[in-house]
Write a structure and sequence with these properties.
With about 140 residues, the chain is of the alpha+beta class. About 50% of the residues lie in helices and about 20% in strands. It has 8 helices and 5 strands, in the order αβαββαββααααα. A hairpin with a 2-residue loop joins strand 4 and strand 5. Helix 2 runs antiparallel to helix 4 and helix 4 crosses helix 7.
């Protein structure tokens, strides 16, 4: 993730890579998942695989945290934002992964349901997540 940040400093670590960073999944992605703006330069890496996902507007800028990894400041989405993103991209990563992330977040009490709901609205998945959030609570 640190090397990916050096290649694409404006990108944000997202989805499976962010879940792995926050220890919310049993998945071990072989690619580094990065969120980039639709008109951004598409970075290329020789030593590892990148999986680029296009985010725009508030979906790209909200919920970004900075963490220091291997001496490099890396931008990673917050837990609640990552869970909402998983539901937004459930067709790419699988609904089972999104549900696992939601269950683990709730079980570990890492964020509130209000925070997840806030990002669900930003990511325009509040209708999709509504039933799952009700079932968990």
């Amino acid at each position: 993730m640190a090397a990916a940040n050096l290649i694409a400093p404006k990108a944000v670590v997202c989805l499976l890579s962010a879940l792995r960073f926050h220890d919310l999944t049993t998945q071990n992605p072989f690619e580094v998942w990065l969120a980039i703006a639709p008109n951004a330069h598409r970075p290329r890496a020789a030593r590892f695989s990148l999986r680029l996902v296009h985010f725009s507007g508030a979906s790209l800028t909200e919920g970004v945290e900075e963490h220091k990894l291997e001496g490099v400041q890396v931008k990673i989405y917050a837990i609640a934002k990552t869970v909402a993103d998983c539901f937004k991209f459930r067709n790419k990563i699988g609904l089972d992964v999104a549900l696992e992330a939601l269950r683990e977040t709730r079980r570990k009490k890492l964020c509130t349901m209000d925070e997840i709901w806030y990002y669900a609205k930003i990511c325009r998945v509040s209708n999709v997540m509504h039933l799952y959030l009700e079932a968990i609570v």
